[in-house]
């Protein structure tokens, strides 16, 4: 009987260690595909400004991020250039970037980067459920302490509408009214993201496959505008809304 109990104990410990080991291995695989997104201008002070996080997708020459991360002045202002930070450290290598596709409704953007292709993250195409263990990696406080990716973990706590109808029409903004015409679901997480995390990939702990894009602006501005103080809840846009952008880029290059 004692031997049997000991066998059960050893098995439980072994399974626990294996489960715990999944996330460290996943982070190691995901990190090389995480980039910082910034804006450079000779006349800017400082000359380089951190904007948010992005991650490599597609053929390794594209970076996904939030649309709100990208300044509107970039397409017409030749004195300033977008760039992405590749690697870790105080002064990691950078690549020039340009905007090639934007989806304002879902707050998503695709950038094309210069140089050799990087390692893209895999995208999970199956349905995702509440309670699944997730993680996201990005730059929560920008470049203040150097470009060292930070990972947060948690679960999908809810799959919820991006906007909740208000008690009266007066409580709805123009943006909310537009969202109510074409509502869609987003992921609500029990892990806290910060402004610099905008554009970070939300991925499954065991596989590293991306299921969403962390969003710190669009969802809160529509879902929580009635609150006097925004909550600490973190949301993510489902990855399925990025797929049309990738497909449109592939069609242009074929």
Automatic annotation (TrEMBL):
Keyword Hydrolase present in the record's keywords: the answer is: yes
User: Per the UniProt entry, what are the Gene Ontology biological process annotations, in alphabetical order?
Assistant: proteolysis
InterPro entries recorded: Peptidase_S1_PA, Peptidase_S1_PA_chymotrypsin
Q: Which UniProt keywords apply?
A: Hydrolase, Protease, Signal
Signal sequence residues? 1-21
Q: Does the keyword section mention Protease? A: yes
Pfam family of this protein, just one? Trypsin_2
Tell me the domain of life.
Bacteria
Can you provide one Gene Ontology molecular function annotated for this UniProt record?
A: peptidase activity
Record protein name field = Serine protease
